[in-house]
């Protein structure tokens, strides 16, 4: 019985020792300086985007708190059906851009400009208007 108690105690001590020696990588967290750079931005946008072969694309974008997004697009004056489309995916942001990754893994880049959202190229320089 004493032998069983000693073995159990040694097992518990070994377990706690191993847990204390865990060398896992540090989790990236936002420091207060980084958090201060992320100014609040609207969680939804509506507008009409230019279109080469229609009157415009009526677009609504909704950012959800869980990191997902939904976009609805309706082609105005389109000659073919369907003229409405929905897409979805995940979003992330930095101080200067919003990155939408759709369900196929394709990324699109945006910059908040006041209450508007400006579509950007991945390689567009930051200081360019």
Automatic annotation (TrEMBL):
List keywords of the entry alphabetically. Signal
The secretion signal range is 1-19
**Keyword Signal annotated:** yes
Q: Does the keyword Signal apply?
A: yes
InterPro entries associated with the record: Cu-R_lipoprotein_NlpE (IPR007298), NlpE_N_sf (IPR043176)
At the top level, the lineage of the source is Bacteria
- In Swiss-Prot or TrEMBL terms, this protein is called Copper homeostasis/adhesion lipoprotein NlpE
Q: Which organism is it from?
A: Escherichia coli
Biological classification of the source: Bacteria, Pseudomonadati, Pseudomonadota, Gammaproteobacteria, Enterobacterales
